[in-house]
Amino acid sequence: MTKPMTLTDLKKELKKLDHAELIDLISTLYKSDDQTKELLNTRFIGEKYQQDALDNYKKKMREEFFPKNKKKATSLKVAKSLITEFKKIGSFEMVLDLMLYYVECGNEFTIEYGDIDGPFYDSLCSVFDQFVDQLNLKGTEDLYSKFRNRIDDLIFSSSNIGWGYGDFITNKSFEIEWSFED
Fold this sequence. Notes:
Blueprint: H1 7-16, H2 19-32, H3 34-45, H4 47-65, H5 76-86, H6 92-113, H7 118-138, H8 141-158, H9 165-173
Helix pairs in contact: 2-3, 3-4, 4-5, 4-6, 5-6, 6-7, 6-8, 7-9, 8-9
């Protein structure tokens, strides 16, 4: 079996191409691969494209939790994969926004349909755990302020949800480094 090129090998091959050949190659990739299309649009259009993409990813995520076709089951795997995909194109702040939105959707799902199960809440807790850890690691006070009301609403609305979920959301929120500064 022939091994694929390494990144170093690819760069060497790309350096051999002239300008027109590079444009042709990138155009072909753009037409044939949605992820490449998103990366290039993010690179050249910038923040406006990222914001539109975030809105689109939120819409897709909401559809996973609240499908229009009531026979379709909620897929946490698909919803979480949207976060992974978006990390490739979104800014740090936008990724955090989508992570928090995932937890909010799951929380709303529970309020709407009643108690779910341990694995469901484990998934929500896992994403909220990552959200708080990333916020503490790279966040700023301004960024926390942006999410503060949503976090407070999440704490309040999750307080009566079982499986330790509501307690986890509250306790993890207290780990946000600047949550006590007011």
